[in-house]
Amino acid sequence: MKEFVLGVDIGGTHIRLGKVTRDGQLHEFHIQKTQLLRDSDEPLQLLITMLGDYLAACKGELIAVSLGFPSIISKDKKVVLSTPNMPGFDHLNVVEALEAVFKVPVFIDNDVNNLLLQEIVDRRLPDTGVIVGFYIGTGFGNSIYMNGQFLRGKNGVAAELGHIPVLGRDELCGCGNPGCVELYASGMRLQQIKQEHFADCEIQDLFSQHQQTEVLQQYLDALSIPIATVINLLDPDYIIMGGGVIHMEGFPREALETYIYRHARKPYPANNLNLSYVEASQTSGVIGAAYHALKSLNKPVMALGE
């Protein structure tokens, strides 16, 4: 029987899952609304039921389950510490609960780490140097990969770039702190801009129709500042950008890069940035979650035919 990992990507809007085999191929991709978990009095039990129902129809040998959460995760990578959009998971030992049911190793991580890992593996990027990922979706996600490992920090919660404070701002973030950067640089902020300034415009058409307006130029600048901050701190070898906002119709990538360059330190790193974009995909988080499990199990992804 062919070995596979069940990869799960739990986002703010959708839960995506699929079988990922050792050759990195995704099979039987499935998608559901995250709102189902958000509305449940027992979201962990509902998640177990969802995964069990999916696995009941799968063929092959399950060797691991791996999940990405839009959350901060405990350093031992077993407990979801804080998920502002799904507080029902806060402080739950997801690994222990799922291993008791499915009888295989279970892995969890922050979702943006899984997204960046998928890019690193599939692009065959080196395990030396510094690779940073920026993912602008509902919030502002950041992942930092240094010399073959994700930067975790003392408590396992490093790279919370969306929650650095902005001087002079005191609006309350969903995390409980005032003035977090993702209040002003995220998909949430873009939705506010639409409602306040372009109520008759569909959200997906904002940039194609109103890119040159002052409010959207200010928004692009707001995006660029935390990105340039990380660039100035780490001087990364590779800068990878993605997320739903980046992939909107007409999103002005060149304008964003101009703002990033404006804030990056001269002459370097500003004059030697290696910046690229991920392809728009519904499946990257699922595949990245599976890669996390395979890496943890010392089962490297094999090329087709191996």
Question: Please, could you describe this protein's structure?
Answer:
The protein is an alpha/beta fold. It folds into two domains: 3-114 and 282-296, Nucleotidyltransferase, domain 5 (2-Layer Sandwich), CATH 3.30.420; 127-236 and 244-277, 2-Layer Sandwich (Nucleotidyltransferase, domain 5), CATH 3.30.420. The protein contains nine helices and 13 strands. The protein has helices at 35-39, 43-56, 94-102, 111-123, 187-197, 206-210, 214-234, 253-263, 284-296; strands spanning 3-10, 14-21, 26-33, 61-69, 72-73, 79-82, 92-93, 106-110, 130-136, 140-146, 149-150, 238-242, 275-277. A five-stranded mixed beta sheet has the order 3-2-1-4-8, with helices on both faces. A five-stranded mixed beta sheet has the order 11-10-9-12-13, with helices on both faces. The chain has a three-stranded antiparallel beta sheet with strand order 5-6-7. Strand 9 and strand 10 (140-146) form a beta hairpin. The longest helix has 21 residues, at 214-234.
